[in-house]
Amino acid sequence: MEAIACDKGARVIYRCMDGCAARLLTDGRTAIISVEERDNEGRRRFSLGHELAHWINDSRKGFNCASDVIGPQNAEAASVEANANVYASQLVLPDYMVRPWMHGRKITLTTAAELGETFHASVTASAIKLVKRAESPACVVCHDMHGRRWFVRSKIWPFDIYPVSELHPNTGAFDIAFKATNRMSTPRKDQGDWWLKGPDVWRVLVEAQSMKLPDGSVLSMLALPEAKP
Fold first, then answer.
1. Which strand (E) or helix (H) includes residue 214?
2. Domain boundary pick from 54, 75, 92
3. Same domain (yes/no): 67, 106
4. Are 90 and 57 in contact (CB under 8 A)?
C-alpha cells in the first residue's frame, strides 16, 4: 500500500491522530497521508486505502476522515466517502484474489479471520468481503450494548429478513457484549427468532458465530440453511 502511495506522489505517515482515523493533505501536486498509528494493522491498511482513493479519484482535494466513515460497512451509500470505501476494499481485498481463496470454505468468522491474516486485513473488512461474495444466504451484523449498528447481507439473503435490533440474551453475542469476554465463539445453531425479524423466522435455525471488536462492539456472522434444489 505504501508503494502505491509513493508511486502516486503521496507520502504516508503513521502517527497519533486527534479525532480522525486518517487525513489527506495536498497542494494538488503531492500529498501527505496521515494514518492513526494506534489502530491495528488491518484498520491502518484500510484507512490508507481510503485516503488513496480520495487522492487518486477525488480531484486531489484534502480530506479529514473520521473513524465512523472509514469502513467497508459504509460502502453502500452513494457518496464520496462510500466510493472511497469500495476502492479501499478492492486495494486491500481484491476480488480476483479473494474469490479463488474462498472456494470450498464456509462463511464463518473463523474463515474471515483466516482471510484477514492472509491479506493483512481486519476481520470486519474480511467478513464483509466474504458475505458480499457469498453464494449462500449469509449476513454479518455489528451490535453494541445499545443495539444494532449496521449489517451487510449476501445477494441471496431473503430481502424481508433482518437482524434483530437488540441482542437476545440466549445468544453468544449477548455474553460477549455484556459479560466482558474477548473470545471468539464457536459456530452454533440458534433459534431463528433470537437473531432475526421477518416471516416465519421462528421455523429456522441460524448458524451464528460472534466476536468482540477493538471498540467493544460485537461482530456476528449469521448463515441460513441453503434452499434444497
1. none
2. 92
3. no
4. no
Task: Measure Cα distances from 123 to 111, 120, 126, 127, 182 in Å.
Answer: 9, 9, 5, 6, 14
**Whole domain around residue 9: which residue ranges?**
2-92
| Residue 147 sits in the same domain as residue 206 | yes
Q: How far apart are CA 160 and CA 20, in angstroms?
A: 36
CB of 104 closer than 8 Å to CB of 127:
no
Q: Which helix (H) or strand (E) holds 187?
A: none
Domain count, the chain: 2
**Does the residue 131 lie in any domain?**
yes
- Please count the other Cβ atoms lying within 10 Å of the Cβ belonging to residue 18: 7
DSSP 8-class letter at 93: S
Q: What is the pLDDT of residues 101-127, one digit of tens each?
A: 999 999 999 999 999 999 999 999 999
Query: pLDDT (tens digit, 9 = 90+) per residue, 140-171?
Result: 999 999 999 999 999 999 999 999 999 999 99
| DSSP element (H, E) containing 10 | strand 10-15
Q: Classify the C-alpha dihedral 168-160-81-49 as positive or negative.
A: positive
In this structure, are 123 and 87 located in the same domain?
no
Q: Which phi and psi (to 5°) does residue 219 adopt?
A: -100, 130
Q: What pTM does this model have?
A: 0.85
Query: How far, in Å, CA of 21 to CA of 124, rounded?
Result: 16
User: What percent of the chain stands above pLDDT 90?
Assistant: 74
What pLDDT, on the 0 to 100 scale, is given for residue 7? 93
Last residue of a domain, one of 60, 76, 92: 92
Question: Is 53 within the bounds of a domain?
Answer: yes
